[in-house]
Design goal:
The chain is α+β, with helices and mostly antiparallel strands. It is built from 14 helices and 17 strands. Helix 2 packs antiparallel against helix 3 and helix 5 runs antiparallel to helix 14. The longest helix has 19 residues.
Length: 470
């Protein structure tokens, strides 16, 4: 159920003081356009899709991301019209909600152009509340006598409390062991079905969807993309494999605190893929690793071109061949104004859906006896690109690896075969095949990753391993 009209007016301040307060957002140039677009987009997504309260979003997202500059914005959430508007001085931005694809910023062609886009109706799976996850919606039970529930309770309480700077606490936690949910816990206002902004976990979905298209013989990941804008230069040799493994060689800066970063393109550009595909080559394709949401968005455009060139052509097979088969009823992939699915980082997923995705990876891409991706595709996703990464971790395709061949294990508390889907601000799908273990953790953290967030989650998964049968 969507909220009724909510609004917040800007603080009253001298014009010079207000202007000075408009600081640089993640990946922006410090201008009012980026401030209004980010706040309209994120408020729409988390209110009308994620069904979080206005105050929670304002305090735990908009304020911290904009460093209080949002205080000078006028924000209006209209649940009747399903729109969110953000205004600062002479600049404004509007995001609209549409069933199936969530929120989209209105582009230069206007709101009606978005309303006119066709979104196929793909019925959701009927899930029984008396049937256990993953086939039904019945949650975890404490019937697994080998799991130390009492011992783990202290750790869980700690991780769900605010015990550090910048919102380190956990929002949801699910543990699946040997194919059954054995533990779950949620913060106030979050349930197993609440769609949570999962950021780069969308890259994991992009890699899985690519596998489905390979199985259907619609995509060759080792052939050039065929993008017409690259026809007459060296970029024409770039392949989907290089986009998946972040080795395209295209220029891209995804350092959040850098004012020249491209990271904010997810919220500020109306055609993200075209923005990314216009970047120049700075390295020979396949020779240098550079983490890039732009790569995933170019891949999304390649897929859209293969499937008819419009939103409907991509939306329907993604939902029919993946989400509905896995009973992922609470997953929403948002779009930009051009009609491209923002698989690079605008995906909202319920915690039970995140766990289903993890179980799917654990089962080598099989579900209910069907091989949904090609046999060996999960092995492909979990094969290191073999190039140095800035963090020192190994990267495959849509997944971080724990193998430590590149210098460091992502989570030292886990075995080397662990696979990690990671989204900004603490969204994790952790799969450990050798332990038949899937862990999902979500949060809203802004603590520094390498020295704060990652050790925090490593401590959590270490406590989980200690509570499992030894």
């Amino acid at each position: 159920m969507h909220q009724s009209l909510s609004s917040r007016s800007p603080k009253k301040a001298p014009l010079v003081l207000a202007w000075a307060a408009v600081v640089c957002l993640t990946g922006c140039k410090g201008d009012l356009e980026s401030l209004t677009r980010y706040t309209a987009s994120m408020l729409c997504s988390k209110t009308l899709v994620g069904e979080q309260s206005f105050e929670k979003i304002y305090n735990e997202d908009l304020t911290i991301i904009t460093e209080d500059a949002v205080d000078f914005a006028t924000l209006k959430v209209d649940a009747d019209k399903l729109t969110v508007r953000s205004s600062v001085f002479f600049e404004s931005a509007t995001a609209i909600y549409r069933d199936g694809v969530g929120c989209t910023l209105v582009g230069p062609d206007g709101e009606q152009a978005l309303r006119d886009q066709t979104i196929p109706n793909v019925p959701k799976q009927e899930l029984s509340n008396t049937t256990a996850w993953p086939d039904g919606s019945l949650g975890a039970s404490d019937s697994n006598k080998n799991f130390d529930y009492e011992g783990f309770a202290t750790s869980a309480d700690y991780h769900f409390s605010e015990h550090g700077d910048k919102q380190v606490k956990t929002s949801s936690l699910v543990i699946a062991y040997q194919g059954q949910l054995i533990y779950e816990k949620y913060a106030e206002g979050t349930t197993s079905t609440t769609p949570i902004f999962s950021f780069s976990l969308g890259k994991t979905i992009a890699a899985i969807f690519s596998g489905i298209l390979v199985k259907d013989e619609l995509l060759d990941i080792h052939a050039p993309t065929g993008l017409p804008e690259w026809a007459n230069d060296k970029r024409s040799s770039i392949t989907p494999h290089q986009l998946l493994t972040m080795s395209s060689g295209l220029q891209w800066n995804e350092i959040p605190d850098d004012p020249t970063s491209d990271a904010g393109a997810l919220f500020f550009k109306h055609d993200i893929a075209s923005y990314a595909s216009n970047k120049p080559l700075v390295a020979e394709p396949g020779t240098v690793y550079n983490y890039s949401t732009g790569n995933t968005m170019i891949l999304a455009k390649v897929i859209k071109n293969l499937l008819g060139g419009d939103l409907a052509g991509t939306y329907q097979p993604l939902h029919e061949s993946l989400f509905r088969k896995l009973s992922m009823n609470n997953t929403v992939v948002q779009t930009d104004a051009s009609g491209s699915l923002v698989l690079g980082g605008q995906v909202l997923m319920g915690t039970h859906d995140l766990a289903r995705l993890g179980q799917f990876l654990l089962q080598d891409g099989q579900w209910n006896g069907e091989q949904i991706v090609p046999a060996g595709w999960v092995d492909y996703m979990s094969t290191s690109v073999g190039l140095a990464t800035a963090r020192g971790f190994d990267y495959g395709s849509g997944l971080w690896l724990n193998s430590a061949k590149n210098g460091k294990a992502f989570f030292p508390s886990l075995p080397a075969d662990a696979l990690i889907g990671y989204g900004w601000r603490g969204q994790f799908i952790i799969v450990v095949p050798s332990m038949e273990l899937v862990v999902v953790r979500t949060g809203n953290s802004m603590v520094e990753e390498s020295s704060g967030l990652f050790p925090e989650i490593d401590r959590l998964v270490g406590d989980i391993v200690s509570a499992l049968p030894q």
